[in-house]
Amino acid sequence: MAAAMKAKLASMITAIETKGQWDEIIENLNGRLLFIDVHKKWSGPCTVMRPTLEKIFLDIENVEARLQFVSLHEESGVDHPGLQEFLQAKSCKPRFVILLNENIVANIDGALSPSVTAAIIENLPEME
């Protein structure tokens, strides 16, 4: 794999640490699908799903204009009303939420590659 592609994959997921970062992502989505890895700060983002997300990133045409990957934890300050349930959950089980136009279109409880892939493909905006 070329060094440029490895660097691109390394920065594929944006870690949200503050409400300001979240607000900036939301303001700049421009109709893209937002895939969110919701996790506890002490456990970190789900590494098991990384190969699946990389494959999706590499396989989707014009992916950066259609899809944004982020991870966030319960202390990030994000105040999206639809995410509070997931941010306040007691479980450390992997949780993935997909937003389109700030609305939740999919919620995957657990590291389920086929479910994550299907939810992304089903909700992915068409190319312009």
Care to describe what's here?
- The chain is of the alpha/beta class.
- It has one domain (12-123): Glutaredoxin, CATH 3.40.30.
- The protein has five helices and five strands.
- It has helices at 3-10, 19-27, 50-59, 84-87, 113-123; strands at residues 13-16, 33-39, 67-73, 95-100, 103-109.
- The chain is globular and about 40 Å long.
- The mean pLDDT is 88.
Could you write a compact summary of the structure shown?
The protein is about 35% helix and about 25% strand. It has about 130 residues and is α/β, with parallel strands linked by helices. It has a 5-stranded mixed beta sheet with strand order 1-3-2-4-5.
Shape: globular
The total number of structural domains is: 1
User: What is the distance, rounded to the nearest whole angstrom, between the alpha carbons of the first and last residues?
Assistant: 29 Å
Query: What is the fourth-level CATH superfamily?
Result: Glutaredoxin
Specify the CATH class.
Answer: Alpha Beta
CATH domain fold name: Glutaredoxin
The CATH architecture can be named as 3-Layer(aba) Sandwich
Strand order of the largest sheet: 1-3-2-4-5
**What value does the Rg take, in angstroms?**
14 Å
Helicity, as a percent range: 25-40%
Q: What is the string of SSEs from the N terminus onward?
A: HEHEHEHEEH
The total of helices stands at 5
Strand residue content: 15-25%
Please identify the oligomeric state: single chain
Q: Give the mean pLDDT.
A: 88
For the sheet with most strands, the description reads: 5 strands, mixed
Q: What structural class is derived from the secondary structure elements?
A: alpha/beta
Spans of at least 5 consecutive residues whose pLDDT stays below 50 are: none
Number of strand segments: 5
